[in-house]
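Practice problem 4.
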């Protein structure tokens, strides 16, 4: 695998701007080649910065009707819950861009957790004719080294065959629905966005050492990208940006 592209930005807003530009560039290339672009959105709070950039700077600079949207993980809450990753994207990206519902692949959190995961997996397998390879998967990073909902010491981290898994997270006392490493690492491109000083130690551990954090297990078949703000990058040196 090619070395990850590591970019350091002065602010988290500039980091989100860089990620937006990369997403649009990859999408444009795929669409110009005659295809549709499949992207899995990440969870947490950072993606809102990306959504703001995409809506404000790129709303008329991509054929958004040729993009299909998924999520790399979701909290097991109703879609109208304030903690929902889907709600964050619908409110701040997908509705503002006028994305058709048929191009939005929601996780059905009204089902029991295991059924919700299986249902999502079935729809992803159908979309990709049973050989799932996302054009781009976006990921966040937790200060504990988790990514998506693959938290340290949880079952889904070790899931060898499923592509989507219901994962109970004891520290949160909550269920999550998450891509597994099998699905993440089959993607052509995977892009981490990490901002804030609390992420700096785990970023350094993953980038510089033989880390055992779950996020360190992420690879990509074409390119892995680490987009960082200055705070998250402060314990690593010699990075572009
Ligand atoms: C979530 C994601 C989680 C998130 C990271 C970063 O739904 O919260 O599972 O992996 O992407 O914790 O979150 P922030 O962007 O809020 O720092």
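Answer key:
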């Amino acid at each position: 695998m090619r070395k990850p592209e590591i970019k350091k930005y002065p602010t988290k807003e500039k980091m989100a701007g860089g990620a937006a530009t990369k997403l649009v560039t990859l999408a444009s290339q795929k669409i110009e080649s005659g295809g549709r672009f499949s992207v899995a959105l990440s969870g947490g709070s950072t993606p809102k910065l990306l959504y703001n950039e995409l809506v404000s700077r790129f709303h008329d600079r991509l054929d958004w009707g040729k993009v299909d949207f998924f999520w790399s993980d979701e909290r097991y809450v109703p879609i109208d819950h304030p903690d929902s990753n889907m709600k964050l994207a619908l409110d701040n990206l997908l509705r503002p861009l006028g994305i058709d519902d048929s191009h939005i692949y929601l996780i059905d959190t009204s089902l029991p957790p295991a059924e919700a995961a299986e249902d999502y997996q079935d729809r992803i397998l159908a979309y990709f004719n049973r050989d799932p390879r996302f054009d781009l998967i976006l990921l966040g990073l937790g200060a504990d080294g988790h990514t998506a909902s693959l938290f340290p010491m949880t079952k889904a981290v070790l899931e060898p065959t499923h592509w989507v898994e219901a994962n109970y997270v004891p520290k949160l006392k909550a269920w999550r629905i998450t891509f597994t490493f099998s699905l993440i690492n089959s993607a052509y491109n995977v892009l981490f966005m990490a901002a804030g000083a609390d992420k700096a130690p785990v970023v350094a551990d993953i980038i510089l050492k033989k880390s055992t954090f779950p996020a360190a297990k992420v690879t990509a078949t074409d390119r892995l990208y680490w987009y960082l703000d200055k705070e998250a990058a402060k314990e690593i040196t010699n990075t572009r940006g």
